[in-house]
Amino acid sequence: MLKGADESVMEQEDSASQHGEMTSWDINDIKLPQHVSQTDWFQEWPDSYVKHIYSSEDKNAQRHHSSWAMRNTNNHNSRILKKSCLGVVVCGNDCSTLDGRKIYLRPAICDKARQKQQRRCCPNCNGPLRLLSCRGHGGYPVTNFWRHEGQFIFFQSKGAHDHPRPETKLEAEARRSIQKAKTAFSPSSLRLKRIQEIEVTLAIGQ
């Protein structure tokens, strides 16, 4: 049977009403939508002023994962997790790798570790490193908010990142592993190991 005009209009109004409910909420609302017909696919690089509703079973949402370098910040509402962007660490010489890529390192989360990181040399050209801070939310860092309610995890981002994307956590771990391997097999490292072996041998012979 064909649907009547009135029935079609009512369905369109219901759909529009549900869509409005899904997009009109704010993370600080007392009540958040619970009649969610479809949850969002997880977004690894959320940017600008966006909102997402994830399933409470989404593993990435459970971990409050983001490929931006975000750290927990104080929030007056214990039900809402607040994270702020740290920006990206770049080469002070603005160098490029052989394949033309720029150096966009992931900032360390801890303040002391981040300061120590900036005293290191660029892994590509040995030049100085500098932190390019995020100022995409009215001069302040972009902020992400997470809130668990019932069967859903609500996400809201405020601000647009004004800097390049940093390397992901996996890329950072892979780069550090390669650097450790290179250091372990460098001539100076091998020479030091040989000296230590000789010292041990002499000590045993005494």
How would you characterize this protein structure?
The chain has helices at about 5-25, 60, 110-120, 170-185, 185-205; strands at about 50-55, 70-75, 80-85, 90, 105, 130, 145-150, 150-160. By secondary structure, it is of the alpha+beta class. The strands form 2 sheets. The protein has a 5-stranded antiparallel beta sheet, with no helix packed on it. The protein has a 3-stranded antiparallel beta sheet with strand order 5-4-6, with no helix packed on it. The protein is elongated, with a radius of gyration of 25 Å. The N and C termini lie far apart (about 100 Å).
Secondary-structure-based class equals alpha+beta
Question: Roughly how many Å apart are the termini?
Answer: 101 Å
What is the H/E order? Answer: HEHEEEEHEEEHH
From the alpha carbons, calculate the radius of gyration and give it in angstroms: 25 Å
The main sheet orders its strands as 1-8-7-3-2
Overall body shape: elongated
**Total beta strand runs:** 8
The low-confidence runs, each spanning 5 or more residues with pLDDT under 50, are 8-19
Helix content: 25-40%
Question: How many helices?
Answer: 5
What is the residue-averaged pLDDT?
Answer: 84
Strand content: 15-25%
Largest sheet data: 5 strands, antiparallel
Q: Classify the oligomer.
A: single chain
